[in-house]
């Protein structure tokens, strides 16, 4: 068991379960994890952001994030080969903020079967650094002073 309460295999390659009663809103998957098992995050209603490091993760199981009603942002790294059916069903706030790093037609189809709408890749201004337009960028004058003083 990790300090977050998540349960991993002894070699830390498989993540079995994250405690649904956890009050954490942000979770970072350990480096080296290859598989998120079926239902691992099911009904984790407090989670808002999950970071999955690129490189090792290859599999997200069926219903892995099912019922994560407050999940707003997740990155699906290019190393993923399989996403199980229903992995993101009943995640109503994933209407934007999903970053998909692989754009093959087979991967996009798999993402849709996992319960994600393709519109979920849209920019979410409330938790992103991206700017909609170069003309909408504004920085307070106090920020310039801080940079100059450093």
UniProtKB/TrEMBL annotation:
Gene3D superfamilies: Ribonuclease Inhibitor. Pfam families: LRR_5 (PF13306). SUPFAM superfamilies: L domain-like. It comes from the Eukaryota. PANTHER family: IG-LIKE DOMAIN-CONTAINING PROTEIN (PTHR45661:SF3), SURFACE ANTIGEN (PTHR45661). This is Surface antigen BspA-like.
């Amino acid at each position: 068991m990790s300090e977050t309460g998540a349960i991993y295999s002894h070699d830390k390659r498989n993540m079995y379960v994250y405690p649904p009663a956890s009050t954490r809103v942000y979770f970072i998957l350990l480096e080296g994890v290859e598989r998120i098992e079926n239902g691992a995050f099911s009904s984790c209603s407090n989670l808002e952001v999950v970071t999955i490091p690129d490189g090792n993760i290859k599999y997200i199981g069926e219903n892995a994030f099912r019922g994560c009603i407050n999940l707003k942002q997740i990155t699906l790294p290019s190393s993923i080969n399989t996403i199980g059916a229903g992995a993101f069903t009943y995640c109503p706030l994933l209407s934007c903020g999903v970053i998909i790093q692989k754009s093959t037609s087979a991967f996009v189809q798999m993402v849709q079967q996992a319960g994600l709408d393709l519109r979920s890749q849209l920019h979410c201004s409330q938790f992103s650094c991206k700017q909609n337009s170069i003309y909408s960028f504004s920085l307070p004058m106090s920020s310039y002073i801080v940079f100059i003083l450093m």
